[in-house]
Design goal:
Layout (H helix, E strand, L loop, with lengths): L7 E4 L1 H7 L7 H14 L3 E5 L5 H13 L5 E7 L2 H11 L4 E9 L2 H8 L3 H22 L4 E7 L8 H13 L4 E6 L6 H14 L5 E6 L6 H9 L5 E4 L13 H10 L11 H12 L16 E2 L2 H9 L23 E2 L7 H10 L6 H18 L4 H12 L6 E10 L2 E8 L2 E8 L3 H11 L6 E8 L2 H4 L5 E8 L5 E8 L2 H17 L2
Parallel strand pairs: 1-2, 1-8, 2-3, 3-4, 4-5, 5-6, 6-7, 7-8, 9-10
Antiparallel strand pairs: 11-12, 12-13, 14-15, 15-16
The protein binds 3-methyl-2-oxobutanoic acid and zinc ion.
The site of zinc ion has 7 residues, from loops.
Length: 510
Amino acid sequence: MENTRQPFFYDITLRDGNQSLKKPWQLSEKEIIFNKLLELKVQAVELGFPASSEMDFEACRYLASIATEKTVVSVLARCVKNDITSAVEAVKHAGTPRIHTFLTLSPFHMKYVLNKDPMEVRKTAIEAVKFAYEEISKANKNGQVEFSVEHFGDCGENLDFVIDTLKEIVKAGATTINLPNTVERKRPRVFLDMIERVYDALPKSVSLSLHNHNDLGMATATTVEGYFSGAVQLECCLNGLGERAGNTNFYEVAVALHNSGVDVPIDLSKIYETALIVSQMSKVEIYEKAPLIGPDALAHRSGIHQDGALKTKDMEFGAYRPIHPSLIGRKDDEKIGFTSQSGKTAIFEIISKAGYPITIQEAIRLTPVIKEAAEKIGELPTRNIIDIYFREICNVQGPFKLTNFDHVEDNKFVVEFKYNDKPFKVTGEGNGPIDACMDALKQAGFERKLLFYKQIAMDEELLGSGAIAMSVIHIEGNNKESIIGRAIHKNTAVANVRAIFNAYNLIYKV
Ligand code: KIV
Ligand code: ZN
């Protein structure tokens, strides 16, 4: 079914999320989250449960007083007069206050938890909604009432009774009917069929709402599909907080609807920073594999995925990610982690990103060595990869062996080396050690053309080796190609000369 209405995001972090925390939030903490919700541009916020404690009453009253005119601020109340009175007291000064009252209509719960006859429960619910509607309307002309069928997911066998009750509840003044999957027990389709039955039966002026708990890990799917089954209000929780396995994750629903072409009235770019704050304040860590916001949500470890991810990394649509990270305000790049499952592309990327020059041929050459290390210890820290790179690329074995290099006077340097074990000692002249070394090699009969030279500052944190620079020397090879020699040393002159010898070894190696 197509839903032409814009989804209405009703956040329940400060109520369902808060009630499940090991240390529920104080007013000042609730205020921080509340302001984040306003930045996200949610349309409605459930502030708390005023009858639960004096502290929560005060928090609800204060937050209702600072809410923007158009934001619906809602508070929870059981179908009990005292709860409703204190709920009305807490929000009556807000621009758009709402009383959210609830009662179970599930056969199991009416019988074993409430221990009441269904007709008695129906009566209680209708009377409570009527009372809430009268009280909030008296106190505020914009007052609204929402009614929740707690455990709606367990109402499959008495759905006709539920629908008849809801028709009465709507007549009593409720404009939003919330259908919670208070405990997620079955597959989404079964639940969605029930939602569709209610949608078809109630007047279209009623705003149908979903509130799914995530006991089987399908709350996001049910909520997203529930929107396409006629629900317009989506009750979600930041970071998927909430009782037990949590409530529907706000970010996943918002992004999934966005990706489905729905006009989502949320500032998605605020998601990531909000998630970090909520995690810190709730002391509930964002788990490694958490969709969208988890550390691993942008990590690629297999060679095939790394290749696709890197080829599309600057594109809005990525080969191996659902969104561009910037959509949710995530600034970190896709992470390339090198394991035994990774390949040359990862090596090339990791070393280049660390600021060191590498060609794809060199990455191919390094692959078996780095893979072998990864097989032993698992994902390799960049530091280990760079160490192998230095060992293999900055120390090329071949016919040349530099044995000594000395600055004798002005522009003269003595270069001592062996070529296939034959010793040479030559004084070279030039404008600095590179020129002088090239001159010495020329005099010894090994003339080559210097194509390019540069020094790269070392990332000391990464290296911790005391080295200060890497020399990169390009020398013309036998087919006029550029052969790159590199070396690191704390003495830049030594680094330069070693880089030249490394390039020579590549050229003269048989
Ligand atoms: O899960 C639930 O049924 C609830 C209701 C109070 C809406 O949280
Ligand atoms: Zn709930």
